[in-house]
Each structure stands twice: as structure tokens, then as C-alpha cells.
Design goal:
The chain is mainly α. The chain contains 19 helices and 4 strands. Strands 1-2 form a two-stranded antiparallel ribbon. A two-stranded antiparallel ribbon has the order 3-4. Strand 1 and strand 2 form a beta hairpin. The protein is flat. The protein starts with about 25 loop residues before the first helix and ends with a helix.
Length: about 450
């Protein structure tokens, strides 16, 4: 005969649901052994183990502290990287790109079914690598062609880069088709389409952010700071005088906060541009990846950074005309600030809708107190894409570059034509007094002996 089990408590019976039954011996002994505190808690005989969970206020307090600490950690790390050199910022963007891709892919993955399919995740990572090879290669060839096109090893990869990238994708495509299994078609095609959406919305847009860095640090830092400050201004204005809901998919956003943040972001952008355009480290395109804030960069500034005089003469209000010196970039930045305030937030709304679709609160837990990397970068990807397109359309100055001339000579001339170009340039430099005449004779002798 088995002995009756004692001290067994069922989960559906809480500490308050003890009416109609006698307390067990262990409960009485615990109530006697533990010193009771005055008040209702002591009268009920609750122990430290029966302490209620943290209140909502305490939870929010802890989250706020964690969020604040990690915010300062991220800001500090970002500024250290930015002042250390462009290569470190590129490394951060690359890490953000990879982690964001991982988070977006993960929320649509079904582990129980993915485990039954070999190479599902491997194919996702292969397509990511292929896309990054293509996009990074395009940037390196475009901005450093004067180095890549004269290197014996790199030249074949540069001249056939797009074909190599295409074949890498085709290999992944064939591998996907060959891995299709009956009964899993819907899941596999859903994963394939979802992977391509992640590549388009994250990897491709991050590629243009990379190009912003190559064009000059200001084209990366300023758009990013506009999005961050607009988010802060929207929060402050929203809790101060926000009343009208802006959009249902993000119920905490208000019209008042949206408009107030726009006005404040315009002011911030105008003032911040006035500071950054004074430093060549920010406004010069990258010609040395080893440069940092101490070594600096050297270039002829883009005309958009050169202040121009504007005369203000209102006889009814002013006794003397007023002359203001304003750089064109400060007018351009008003459009940047407007996009950051009025359009970029819809990247966040899109991300909110995506999370609601898959019933998740955050994309991940990469940043304590903030959620995933994607939760912080949802607006930045769209803003960086806009910054590059706007720069190329309205601000960039197109002129011949060393890399462009070398590329034209390699791709458009045969060997004899290339030699004639070299001899012509050498003769020109001799006539200009830049090189000695014996250098030209030496060059002609070398050509004659070939």
C-alpha cells in the first residue's frame, strides 16, 4: 500500500484560493518559522518565495535603465568608429547588414519544417554572400578602379565581375530547384521569396549606405542623425501635446508629434550642416581608407559646401540691407530633414506591420532594451537609400577621374593605342616641366625593344 503524498499543491489553486480546506502541516510550519512582517502580508503568512512579480512600473523602470545604458554604449561606439576612420564605419554597416538579414529571415522560418529540409538555411546564407559579393564588388570597382584595374590579379575579377556574380546566383538558383521536395513546395517557395525580399529591403539598401560613406562621411552621418533626432523629437512632442492618432498600425504615434518633430528636425539639420561642412574629414570623398579624424582628408570641396552671399533688404523693417552667407547644402538639407521626418518613419511603420503579421514584439534580442538591430535600423535603410539617390541626382559633380581614364583606356583601346596614350602623356608632362626629358627617351627605348 503506497503512502499518501503530502505537501502537493496544484497549480490551479493559488495562495488565495484556500477557502474550504485545512492548511497543510508544512504550510503551518513555514508560517511559524518565517517572521511575519506587520500588515496584511504578515497576517496571511506569505513567505519571500510568495513575493508577487514586479509591478509594471518596476518593469518599465528596469527596461528604461537598460535601454538608456545601451543607447549610450551604441552612441559612444559609433562616434569612436566614425573618428577612427571610414573603414570602421563600413565594418559596422556590414555587421548591421548581416545581423538584420538574419533577424528578418528568422521571423519567417518554421524550425520544425526547416529541420526536415536539408540546406534551407545554407541556401539563405549562400544567396546573402552572393549578393554581398556583387554589391561590394561594384562599389570597390567604382571608387577604387585606379587600384583594381592596374593589378594583375584583380583585373580579371574586375572586368568580369558582373558575369561572375550572375553565375554565383545561378548556382544558388539551380541548387534551390534541385532541393525541392514533395509536400514542402509551398514552404520552400515561401522561404525563397522571403529571402529575396530580405535581400532587396536590407542588403541592397545597405549597399547604398556604403556608397554614402565613400562619397563623404557627411552623407552618411547627417542622414542617420536626422532620423535619430526626428525619432527623439517625435517622442518628446508626442508625450507633451500629442492627442490625435497618426496611423493605426502604430497607435502611439500622433499627428502633433509627427509635425512637431518635422519642424525641430529642420532646425537641427540646418544647424548641424553648418558645423559639419567646415571639416574636410566629413565633406571629402574617400581616397584613403586608412584616413582618420587626426590625419584628415584633402580635396577640392564640392561647390555645394561653399557659402554664397544672400542679401535681405526690407526697407519697411530694416535701415540697412542684411547679407547672409549660406551654403547651398543648407538648403538641400531641408529636403533631407523633410524626408527623414515625413517619409522615413514609414519604414518603421512597415516594420511594425511585419512584426504584427508574424505576431512578434521585436525582430530579435541583439541589443538589450531595444530589441533587434532591425528594430533600430528600419528607418535608416530607407533614409540611406534616399541620401545616395538625391546626392547622385542633384549634388554630385561628374568629372574625369584617374580610374575612369584608365578604365576607358583598358576597355576601349588595344595594346598599341594604350602605348600611344602613355607616350603622349609622357611627352605632355615633359613639355610642362613635370618630368625630365630623359624619362621620355627611356620610355621610347623600352617601347622600341618590345
Amino acid at each position: 500500500m503506497t503512502k499518501p503524498r503530502r505537501n502537493v499543491q496544484f497549480q490551479h489553486r493559488g495562495s488565495n484560493g484556500q477557502h474550504g480546506r485545512r492548511p497543510s502541516l508544512s504550510e503551518n510550519s513555514e508560517a511559524i518559522s518565517e517572521p511575519s512582517s506587520p500588515g496584511p502580508k504578515g497576517m496571511n503568512g506569505r513567505t519571500e518565495k510568495d513575493e508577487p512579480p514586479l509591478s509594471e512600473y518596476e518593469k518599465k523602470k528596469q527596461t528604461f535603465i537598460t535601454r538608456t545604458i545601451w543607447t549610450f554604449v551604441m552612441i559612444t561606439g559609433f562616434f569612436i568608429a566614425m573618428f577612427s576612420g571610414h573603414i570602421y564605419v563600413i565594418a559596422i554597416v556590414t555587421a548591421v547588414q548581416i545581423i538584420s538579414f538574419k533577424e528578418v529571415i528568422a521571423i519567417a522560418n518554421v524550425p520544425s519544417r526547416a529541420k526536415n529540409l536539408r540546406f534551407t538555411r545554407s541556401l539563405n546564407w549562400y544567396l546573402l554572400g552572393s549578393m554581398m559579393y556583387f554589391l561590394y564588388g561594384e562599389s570597390v570597382i567604382y571608387y577604387f578602379k585606379h587600384i583594381v584595374l592596374v593589378d594583375r590579379v584583380l583585373l580579371p575579377f574586375a572586368t568580369h565581375h558582373r558575369f561572375i556574380s550572375f553565375m554565383l546566383y545561378i548556382i544558388g538558383f539551380v541548387f534551390f530547384v534541385a532541393s525541392l521536395r514533395k509536400g514542402h513546395y509551398r514552404f520552400q517557395f515561401t522561404q525563397f521569396a522571403w529571402t529575396h525580399m530580405a535581400l532587396l529591403l536590407i542588403v541592397v539598401q545597405a549597399h547604398f549606405i556604403m556608397n554614402d560613406i565613400f562619397e563623404g562621411m557627411i552623407w552618411f552621418f547627417l542622414p542617420a542623425s536626422l532620423v535619430i533626432t526626428n525619432d527623439i523629437f517625435a517622442y518628446v512632442c508626442g508625450i507633451t501635446f500629442g492627442r490625435t492618432q497618426l496611423i493605426k498600425i502604430s497607435p502611439k504615434k500622433t499627428v502633433e508629434g509627427f509635425v512637431g518633430a518635422w519642424i525641430l528636425t529642420l532646425i537641427f539639420g540646418f544647424g548641424m550642416t553648418n558645423v559639419l561642412m567646415r571639416y574636410k574629414y566629413f565633406i571629402c570623398p574617400v581616397n584613403d581608407l586608412g584616413a582618420n579624424v587626426f590625419t584628415g582628408l584633402s580635396c577640392d570641396p564640392n561647390p555645394v559646401f561653399i557659402p554664397k552671399p544672400y542679401n535681405i533688404d526690407i526697407p519697411a523693417l530694416m535701415s540697412h540691407p542684411l547679407t547672409l552667407h549660406i551654403a547651398p547644402i543648407q538648403f538641400h538639407i531641408l529636403l533631407f530633414a523633410s524626408f527623414a521626418s515625413l517619409i522615413a518613419p514609414f519604414g518603421g511603420f512597415f516594420a511594425s506591420g511585419l512584426k504584427r503579421t508574424f505576431k512578434v514584439k521585436d525582430f530579435g534580442e541583439s541589443i538589450p532594451g531595444h530589441g533587434g538591430i532591425t528594430d533600430r535600423m528600419d528607418c535608416q535603410f530607407l533614409m540611406g537609400f534616399f541620401a545616395y539617390m538625391y546626392f547622385q541626382s542633384f549634388i554630385a559633380v561628374y568629372k574625369a577621374s584617374v580610374g575612369g581614364v584608365i578604365e576607358s583606356a583598358i576597355q576601349g583601346l588595344d595594346t598599341e593605342g594604350q602605348i600611344e596614350v602613355v607616350k603622349g602623356l609622357a611627352k605632355y608632362l615633359v613639355n610642362q616641366g613635370q618630368i625630365e626629358e630623359k624619362t621620355l627617351h627611356c620610355l621610347n627605348g623600352l617601347v622600341a625593344r618590345r
